[in-house]
Specification:
Structural class: alpha+beta
Strand content: 5-15%
Radius of gyration: 24 Å
């Protein structure tokens, strides 16, 4: 028969190992989430800059759908913005009328106040010139981001 001391030591050892494992899993999950939020914010910021630059160069949103295509296998498109797929973004003018159709709106539709409340304002000179609606999964991860997340997990 084993002693009580042995059983308690073994139980504390098991609890300690489980605690470390759970802590590592929680830390890894939180770090992955924070990294995804960071890359989303960085990509969204680049997209906003590109859209505002387009508006400032042209003075309107005319021809934006044709000029603003995500990069494809043959290159071209918006530089350094890794969109997951075409048609994932929605861009409106200052009044909320859709100029680049995407989920939740066709070209010419007027977005609801609820959708605009969740949208990112596009501003130039302190004036709102449009709105951007981007789902959280809009951006494809780059190879470097995939490698980092693979090493993190």
């Amino acid at each position: 028969m084993r002693s009580l001391r042995f059983r308690l030591t073994f139980a504390f050892l098991i609890v300690g190992v489980l605690g470390v494992a759970v802590g590592a899993i929680v830390a890894s999950h939180r770090a992955s989430g924070a990294f995804r939020e960071f890359t989303f914010a960085r990509n969204q910021e680049g997209l906003v800059t590109t859209l505002v630059s387009y508006y400032e160069a042209h003075g309107n949103w005319d021809d934006l759908p044709g000029a603003f295509q995500p990069p494809g296998p043959m290159g071209g498109g918006a530089p350094n913005i890794p969109l997951r797929e075409p048609g994932i973004l929605l861009v409106t003018d200052a009044e909320g009328r859709v100029v680049v159709p995407g989920p939740g709106g066709e070209e010419g539709d007027l977005l609801s106040e609820d959708m605009l409340a969740d949208a990112t304002p596009l501003e130039s000179g302190g004036v709102t010139i449009g709105w951007l609606v981007v789902p959280e999964d809009a951006f494809a991860r780059t190879r470097g981001e995939e490698q980092f997340l693979g090493q993190l997990n």
